[in-house]
């Protein structure tokens, strides 16, 4: 209970909660459009960007490492588009290729940096793999909050266009809403959220913040606005619970703790949600009885 009265805990929890809320909302678009695996590939691709930024500048500074993650995320996305668009390689194969190649590069750079004394202290690099909010600095939290709030505001401003872009792409082009521009905007928000959330959740699990809340929301409602709200709230609740568990229990990384909390909500929603198994079973039985 002492943790719940700690100012430092609430600062860190605020960062993970806002990050997860924003990721749940933005990630819902990718899930509905069937592009969630692109976020997975980009998330893994940001890890070598963190290492490359550290090797170039020699500082474990939040903004520098996040910039490296963003650059590599963009490179990974462009590589996916080029491979799938200008070769006979399918999109799924391109995603698998980029994900494994970039993450393998990140692990190779990590081994090289940690085995080379010229780079000095590398303490904290492992946190970018699985995430550890307990070791986040105030600057990390400020960056997460700033990027998340900007993403949420941008999403609200573009909400009418986003809704048309998702559910009626033909009409979207007719009224002058560029599908390419909307796709770029959503992807940009996704990459930024992934980059700033690496230290909190980790490169391996960050994509779950984009996918799992959207799944939870879709199991409770068919209305897009309601799905967005449920997704954001599910991400926020799971982030607070996971951050608390990882702070109280030594040795448990924040990323896995948050994802486990999300997994519990997913299972609960699959059973008791509006489109869950139990509701379907009840409706099926009622239909038989009638």
TrEMBL record:
Keywords of the record: Cell membrane, Membrane, Transmembrane, Transmembrane helix, Transport
Main location group: membrane
Annotated TM spans: 6-29, 41-59, 65-83, 95-113, 141-160, 227-246, 252-273
Topology of the protein relative to the lipid bilayer: Multi-pass membrane protein
Subcellular location: Cell membrane
Family assignment from sequence similarity: Belongs to the ABC-3 integral membrane protein family.
Name of the protein: Metal ABC transporter permease
Species of the source: Corticicoccus populi
Organism classification: Bacteria, Bacillati, Bacillota, Bacilli, Bacillales
């Amino acid at each position: 209970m002492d943790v719940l009265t700690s100012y430092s805990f609430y600062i860190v929890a605020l960062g993970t909660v806002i990050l997860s809320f924003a990721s749940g909302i933005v990630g819902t678009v990718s899930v509905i459009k069937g592009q969630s695996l692109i976020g997975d590939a980009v998330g893994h691709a940001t890890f070598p960007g963190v290492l490359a930024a550290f090797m170039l500048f020699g500082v474990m500074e939040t903004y520098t490492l996040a910039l490296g993650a963003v650059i590599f995320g963009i490179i990974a996305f462009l590589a996916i588009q080029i491979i799938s668009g200008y070769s006979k390689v399918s999109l799924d194969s391109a995603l698998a290729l980029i994900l494994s190649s970039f993450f393998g590069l990140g692990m190779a750079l990590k081994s090289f940096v940690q085995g080379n004394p010229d780079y000095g202290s590398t303490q904290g690099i492992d946190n970018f793999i699985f995430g550890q909010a307990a070791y986040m600095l105030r600057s990390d939290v400020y960056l997460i909050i700033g990027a998340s709030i900007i993403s949420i505001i941008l999403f609200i401003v573009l909400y009418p266009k986003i809704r048309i872009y998702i559910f009626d792409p033909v009409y979207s082009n007719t009224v002058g809403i560029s599908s390419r521009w909307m796709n770029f905007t959503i992807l940009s928000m996704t990459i930024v959220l992934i980059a700033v959330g690496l230290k909190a959740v980790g490169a391996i699990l960050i994509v779950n913040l984009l996918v799992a809340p959207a799944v939870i929301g879709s199991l409770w409602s068919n209305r897009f606005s309601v799905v967005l709200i449920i997704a954001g709230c599910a991400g926020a609740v799971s982030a607070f619970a996971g951050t608390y568990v990882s702070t109280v229990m030594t040795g448990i990384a924040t990323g896995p703790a948050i994802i486990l909390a999300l997994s519990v909500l997913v299972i609960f929603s699959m059973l008791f949600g509006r489109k869950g198994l139990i509701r379907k079973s009840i409706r099926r039985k009622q239909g038989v009885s009638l």
